[in-house]
Structure prediction request, 693 residues.
Amino acid sequence: MGAINAVTDLTAQGDVAVLTVNSPPVNALSQQVRDGIVKGMQQAIADSAVKAVVLICDGRTFIAGADITEFGKPPQSPSLHDVCDAIENSSKPVIAAIHGTALGGGLETALCCHYRVAVPSAKCGLPEVHLGLLPGAGGTQRLPRIVGPEQALQMVTSGAHVDAKTSLAAGLLDEIVPEGELRAGALAYAKKVIAEKRPLRKVRDMNEKVAAARGKPEIFADFRKANARKFRGFLAPEYNIRCIEAAVNLPFDQGIATERKLFMELMTGTQSAAQRYVFFAERQVWKVPDVPDDTATIAVKKVGIIGAGTMGGGIAMNFANIGIPVALVETKQDALDRGFGVIRKNYESTAKRGKLKPEDVEKRMALLSGSLQLESLADCDLVIEAVFENMDVKKEVFGKLDSIVKQGAILATNTSALDVNEIATATKRPDAVIGLHFFSPANVMRLLEIVRAQKTSKPVIATSMQLAKKIGKIAALVGVCPGFVGNRILYARQLQAQAMLMEGAMPWDVDKVLYDFGMPMGPFAMSDLAGLDIGWSKEKSKSSTVREVLCEMDRRGQKTGAGFYDYDAERNAKPSPVTEKIIKDFMAKAGAQARKITDQEILERCTYPMINEGAKILEEKIAIRPSDIDIVWINGYGWPVYRGGPMFYGDTVGLKNVVAKLKEYGPKLGAGFTLSPLLEQLAAEGKRFQDLK
Ligand code: 3HC
Ligand code: NAI
Prediction:
């Protein structure tokens, strides 16, 4: 007894051996952990004084899964299957003692134990699907044997973390022990198992629930149908479903063989590589090299928002949701009333869907106050400006704020493209000025671009990042340039999409390719949704572009029932002969010849210039790292996570191929198009964006 290796030890507690894993931060099943468990089990079994084993973890959590950093590297023995066998085939009962999260390989390990106890705050889940994988250590075969195929399907395809109470009810846990008393509770349970001579219960032998589902293929057909939209483009959900089907239809060992085969297919594929990359990118994005974790922050106890329009209202909800009071300022009472009305309607519709208690609607509304005076913002710790996108208006507002808002407060702008450095000049405290670029709808979209201006102070950055996390956003710190990261790259795509209309592609041709690629919608459908009249004015409109003509005809997008597309009463889009004629008229006027543009060209013309723009953003140090750009595009624009973001996609295609194609398209890309030297250099050196350090 004693230390087995650096991360595991075995101690005796009477006739119970306690096998403890201590491998921070999350006790992932690294080679050392696997080795320690296998050796610990061997020692415990060899020791005749031991009658039962408790498997427990130190630190913040039970085993949170396989060690993802080992994926893609040569396998090292012992495997996770060896761990599972060592536990399940033990001649002495093994009890898993769970706190924190038993996830993925961690839950699979627990499912090989003969009994499981947990504290009330513990959670169980098989989140492999989020990594483009399936549980590869028997989870797909054991889980349905306990919870039944229907619940297993839900769990493996959603990756949900199931709380202890629900897990107990589902049979995943045998007992819940008091919080903070896991070790004692597990030992007491082990002694009960010994005293009552309970059997070595193996989940693999529990066949009742899977047998009951045999001959009922509709369980799977219905599940697939109900979730088809949600799973579109992803391989992993379908592979997980197939494994549960195998659990129902095949003997255990054959089911395991199916699981292993499908797991390896996913593991070696591009989708899982992308999703694993995104897992780490989502954690990296919070790290700002020159703003360390211990940077001082500003306590934000009250937030002020100027402008209660589309963005201001949504932004306000984020803070009310976490109990921070918000003061909203408008220029006119009716605008303020309208803003409050929209917020209330949003909360009420969430309550109607059962996702918010009616009393919480009132609690949140009570946190909001409205005024027509900027003076009401004097005591705010953070003020976010969300007025019209006009530099003069913004500067005027910031100039006034300077003399009203208390010193030490953060002065933020939600501008989507204006120069934050210039806005900062309107104040005497440019160090307090930062961009907080929310995405529409601001209460829903996960992305927040935090725009660092030349003089923004580090505490202002650190506070903004911290606050973003608190309101449930994923934040990327970016620098100042037109459109910042997201919209700048969007613009690069937009230019190509529009250019192709003059070469023979129709909006729906372009949109279909991008939809099939995995985007929620293509650029033209997106414009229709956002409104074609953003930035358009009737007075200045000169029928000089397709968009201007559409707006002049009052085809301003979905809200007017027509835009690039025609819409029916249910807002279903149909290709529009009107738009087609406008495009053809423009082509005729320009003397342009229509040619057949392949889907391949549409995809390359839309995505490769995005990759090129991303490379320029890196050159200019507007983004800290390529993966931050991917986070922006996944969370702000719906880039399919299984393609890892535009930069990862570039790596997948091969930067050499991207550059070769961009050169081939040459003049078609427009007079303003230039290749990024960084992209060219990486391509010439056979490198990837991921190789940039
Ligand atoms: N392997 C390696 N590193 C991991 C890891 C894992 N499974 N899980 C988390 N980490 C690392 C993170 O990268 C992070 O590292 P950093 O500090 O250097 O950035 C650190 O642990 C802490 O992670 P979080 O910041 O996410 O900490 P939280 O406390 O917010 O969350 C958690 C903890 C809920 C456990 C969360 O980390 C998580 O969801 N982890 C992934 C769980 C998972 O997907 N498990 C399945 C793995 S695949 C598998 O098991 C295959 C099997 O079926 C064969
Ligand atoms: P909006 O027109 O819906 O709302 C702006 C509101 O500001 C109006 O209600 C107006 O009355 C009010 N306002 C104007 N001047 C004011 C002043 N001096 N004091 C107080 N209130 C004033 O506009 P929207 O869409 O909310 O945009 C606001 C800002 O957010 C803009 O800078 C825009 O570029 C940016 N943004 C917009 C996004 C969108 O999708 N709508 C996305 C991200 C950023």
